[in-house]
Amino acid sequence: MKRILPLLAVLLWTGSADIQAQTRFLDDRVTLSGFGTLGLLHSNQEHADFVRDIGQPKGAEQGWSSRIDTRLGLQADIRFDEKLTGVIQGMSQYHSSGDFSPELMLAFLRYSPDPGFQFRVGRLGWDVDLVSDSRYVGYAYPWIRPPVDHFGVLQLTYIDGADVTFKRPMGSDLIWARFFTGRTNSRAYLSDELYANFDADHIYGGHLNYETGAWRFRAGYTRIESDVDYGGTLADQVAQIPGFNTRRFFNAATGFEQLEVYSVGAIYNPGPLQLQAIWNRDILIRNEIWVDSAFVSAAWRFNDLSPYTVLSAVRTHDDRDDPLNSNIEQRTWGVGLRYDVANDLAIKTQVDRIHTHSPGLLWRNTDDSWNGGWSTMVSLGLDFIF
To answer: Is 3 domain-assigned?
Structure first.
């Protein structure tokens, strides 16, 4: 944490200066903006370390940790003309490389000749459900972090490809659809001793949206076909067995080569009240295994204060004996409070009670004897945009 705070302060200060200079110099054709989170989490769990998502190799150990939630992002929006624009976004967060090295999260061109049509090409966010495209911008949602039981098992951060969006008004309502295709590389940690490298060379899908009054609805589908390699000490041990095909063994155990994701969600936001409910089903086609994850959330804004509550759950449906101890079954109850100090700054606090039946992918450094139980997480966060 001592190294992160000065870095964030310097980047925030210099970034603000660059915004003013670039905007004046390029006659408002380039707009620089940013977002970030300073996060602290206290865990009372002595048998395992808590992670935000399956891409994090290490988690928050017992006591205080700033590792899993702290991040800083910078974005440039470029306007070439009224129809052609571009976006470039970089972000520093704790991710699969085991450090805070910056990543290129977005880099695309957008062509929109009229309000009813949009085409984008480049590096795009994977907006599989209603909240996933903003899950790294803490200021955009009420919670400290998106519910881990749901968003923690999402496999992709972005895709390199293209998408097309069609919008059509229906009276005062709006119906729109997006279709996408592309590829990406990612890494998911199954345990401390095993990780999977995804070379997802065939990704395609889309979602249908309907907006009426304060309601937003979405139904989505994604299919991911990958070449998967495995690493870590467990993979190295298996590779030492003469005549044994490591990749074939782990692919048979996981079924990661082909994955389908179904998503249904709704948001109701009439003003002070905000209700959200989202459900996903990830189907591992080869082994007929699926993972259900969902959450419901309610927040109410009183002037600058927004109390909220959230309930989430995740469960692996697998009739086998779980050969890699990767199956998950967990529920989380959370309550929190957001205080908007200014138009671009929010302070949050949240308490989560987690009931773990099977730790699976969402915990690190687990004791061999730990099969789950109750954990309490107390989180503090400072979210900002600029």
So the answer is: no
